[in-house]
Amino acid sequence: MNVLVPLLIFITGLIFGSFFNVVIYRLPEGKSIIAPRSFCPSCGAKLKAYDLIPVFSFIFLRGKCRYCGCKISFRYPLVELVTGVVFVILYIKFGLSVEFIFTVFLMSILLMVFFIDLEHMIIPNELVIAGLIGGIALFVLRFWFDDALVGDSQWYSPILGMLATSGFLLLVALIGLAIYGTDAFGMGDVKIFLPIGLILGLKLSVISLVFSIFIGGITGLFLIITGLKHRKSHIPFGPFIVMGTFLSILFGNEFFAWYVGMLL
Ligand SMILES: [Zn+2]
């Protein structure tokens, strides 16, 4: 395999990841993601271009601010690396195609959801709306281009995907609210499945939901058994949605074929 294209895609991922860091840091605080220029959250020093080279600046500065010496969160290089790796994996899966562009788009939104929900226990509406805009673009494109496709081929599949997944979570949230007075899933979890359903269509978005609940359940059980969390403590569900969706994009069709084969 030619290594140049994956390398370029990896570097592109690092650069995008560097922008996602800005969104992850500023969006929950209600700050603008465009201005001002990046600064050290500790001493406020404006960062120069050479302080902002993805991953490398962090290594070169040994994880400390050049100006005040305070520690830089390991989250910054982590987000950049994960974004680069996710982009390359999607390229290996889909090549340069419509599927590649829209799964990269969806996973970009979801990577920001992952880190924001993990820290703040919220999924910002701005990310849901950005995801919906991309989803609507894909939905419209497929009326003109037969290959503008990520999930199933029926035109209404994205609408069913949204209704089935968001609808299911909404129902569970409402039942939980009625019986226990608390909702197991937040409204952010309900809403983020709108762009997931719209982009992946019915089959893959339902599999995303199944995978997320499965991974979330196992992790929750593990955290309770090991005493790291209590039964009542809140565990954000967003990160599991992100992992479940990524696995569904990569293996959802194979999983479906295996599952149907088992039933027959
Ligand atoms: Zn500083």
Shape summary: globular
Q: Which segments are poorly predicted (pLDDT under 50) over 5 or more consecutive residues?
A: none
Question: Please, how many helices?
Answer: 8
Number of separate structural domains: 2
User: Roughly how much helix do the residues carry, as a percent range?
Assistant: 55-70%
**Computed CA radius of gyration, to the nearest angstrom:** 20 Å
Structural class: mainly alpha
Pfam family, one: Peptidase_A24
Keywords: Cell membrane, Hydrolase, Membrane, Methyltransferase, Transferase, Transmembrane, Transmembrane helix
GO cellular component, one term: plasma membrane
Organism: Thermoclostridium stercorarium (strain ATCC 35414 / DSM 8532 / NCIMB 11754) (Clostridium stercorarium)
Compose a concise summary of this entry.
This protein has helices at 4-26, 56-60, 75-94, 98-120, 125-141, 157-180, 187-225, 238-263.
